[in-house]
Amino acid sequence: MSMTCGEATMRLLARYGVTTVFGIPGVHTLDLCRGLSGGANAGAIRHVQTRNEQGAGFMAEGWARATGEVGVAVVISGPGVTNAATAVGQCYADSLPMLLVSAEPEARTIGKGWGVLHEITEQKRATEPLCAFSATARRAADVPDLMARAFSIFASQRPRPCHISLPIDVQAEMVEEIWEPVALPARPAPAPAQIAEAARMLRAATCPVIMIGGGAAGAAGDLTAIADTLGAVVIASTAGKGIVADDHPLSLSASTVRPEVQAFLPEADVILAVGTELSETDSFIERMELRGRIIRVDIDPAKISDLYPATLGIVADAGSAMAALRVALAEVPGRDRDGVARVAGLRARIAANLSGSERRHAKLLALLDRIAPEGTVWAGDACQLVYTGAFAMPVRKPRHWFYPAGFCALGNALPNGIGAKLARPDAPVAVLAGDGGFMFTMPELVTAAEARLALPIVIWENGGLKQIQDDMDLRDIARVGVEGINPDFVALAQACHCHGTYADSAAAFTEAFQGAFETDRPTVIVVRENDAWLS
C-alpha cells in the first residue's frame, strides 16, 4: 500500500504506541498532517491543536510526567523548533521521554544559507545540546532507523528527549512498504554481587539515608519496604516526590532545599541514592555535605562518579535493583534505628522556621490536601507556592507532583496539566501557577477549553515575579522588571471560554476548587497572597 513518508511516519508512531501528538500545523508539516487526518492512518493518532509550539512541547512533557510514556510534539521547521526548545530543554534536565518531530526545508537546502522559508542553517544543531540525539532524515528510508534509535533510548537508557527532523521533500516521498517497530531492548539489571554489598553496607549503617529521584518512580513499593526495613530517613528530589509517600513517618519529602535537612545530611553514614542526580536544583546550594559512603543506583553510568562519586556504583534500572535489594536486605541481620524520631524532629524544626510567605503557602497547601480528590496530580510551575509545596504538600504516589526544578522554566504548569489530563482522563489533575509564570502560556487556556477539560487552575497572585523581587531586596538591588501589572484573571478566563473566580475566603476557595472537577471546562481560581484568610 503506497503512502507518503509523512503518513508512514505517523503510522509508525502509532505502532510504537503513540496515541496523541501536540502541535500546530503549518505549510511544512502538511504531509505529516495527512497521516493524522486521513489516508492509511486515519483516526489512529489524535492531534491536539495548541496555541504555541512551546505549549505543545510542555503538553508532551506533561504527558511524559504523568505516565512515564513518550510525549510527542509535532512542529514546523524553524520557529516551531525554537518555540518548542524550552520544553525540550526541560525534558532533558528532568530526564523525561519526549519526541520532537519537526519539519525542515528541502534536504538540498540544508547548510546552504539560501534564506528559504523557516531556515535554520542546520536545524539539528539547534537541538543537539538538549537531546539524547537530534537527527535529520535525508530520505524516507532513514525514518524507521531513527525512530528505532529514539524508542530504544526511551526503553532502555536514561529517558531524555529526541528530535527527528523531516525535510518537506522527504515527507512527500512515496513509501511502498509497511514500516514496523523494532523489538525494544530491556533496561540493565543489577549485578547480584553489588546488591549483596549494598545490603551489607546498609545493614551496618547507624544512620542510613535514602535519597530518591524521578528515576525511581517504578520502585515505589520496594523503596518503601526498604526504608521500613532499615528505619532509614527518606529524602526525595522534586521529581522523586511521592515515590515514598510524603506522610510516611520516615519521609522528609523533597526537602533538601531546607537548611534543617542540609544540616542533618552530614550525620548520614551510608546514603542510598536511587535514580537521582543529587542535583543543585533540588537543594539550591552548590554542594551538599555528604560525609557518608554513597551507594548510587542509576541507569546513567555518568551519574556514578560525577559531583558525588559513589563508594558503590550500580548501573541498573531502579525497579529491578530495588526489588533485588529488598530481598537481599531480608537476609541480612539488622539493628534498631531512630529514623522515625529523626524525621519527626526535623519536620517540627522546618514548621517552626517557615517564613511569613511560606506560612501562607502552607495554609493553602494544607487546605488543598484536605479538599482535593484522592490521587490528584499536581502540575506546578516555578513559583513560590510550588517551592514551598515541594516539602510542605503531602503527595502519596509517584508521578503526581510536577515541578520543573531541573531547567526551572516558567509557564509549564498549565500545558503540563493539559497533557497530564489528556494522558490520564480518569485522574483528577490540578494546576498550581504563579501570576508571572501563568502569563507565559496563558493562551493554552483555549486549548483546555476546546478539549472540555475539568481542570482547576490555581493562580497564586503575589504581585509579579515575587521570588526575584525578594532576591533583589535581599541583595539591596533596586527592583527592575519584576512588578508589571497583571490582567483581570477572571475576565481573561471568561474570554477564553473558561470559568473564573477570585477566592476571598477558605469557603469560597473550597467551593470553587471542588466544583472545578465537575464542570465541562477549566476553572481559574485566583488567590491573592495578602488576603486575610491566609493569615
From TrEMBL:
The keyword Hydrolase does not apply. It comes from the Bacteria. Residues 390-527 form the Thiamine pyrophosphate enzyme TPP-binding domain. InterPro entries: DHS-like_NAD/FAD-binding_dom, THDP-binding, Thiamin_PyroP_enz_cen_dom, Thiamin_PyroP_enz_TPP-bd_dom, TPP_enz, TPP_enzyme_TPP-bd. Keywords: Lyase, Thiamine pyrophosphate. The keyword Glycosyltransferase does not apply. One of its GO terms (molecular function) is 5-guanidino-2-oxopentanoate decarboxylase activity. Residues 3-114 form the Thiamine pyrophosphate enzyme N-terminal TPP-binding domain. Its EC number is 4.1.1.75. Residues 195-325 form the Thiamine pyrophosphate enzyme central domain. Gene3D superfamilies: 3.40.50.970, TPP-binding domain. Pfam families: TPP_enzyme_C (PF02775), TPP_enzyme_M (PF00205), TPP_enzyme_N (PF02776). PANTHER family: ACETOLACTATE SYNTHASE CATALYTIC SUBUNIT, MITOCHONDRIAL, THIAMINE PYROPHOSPHATE ENZYMES. Belongs to the TPP enzyme family. This is 5-guanidino-2-oxopentanoate decarboxylase. It comes from Albidovulum salinarum.
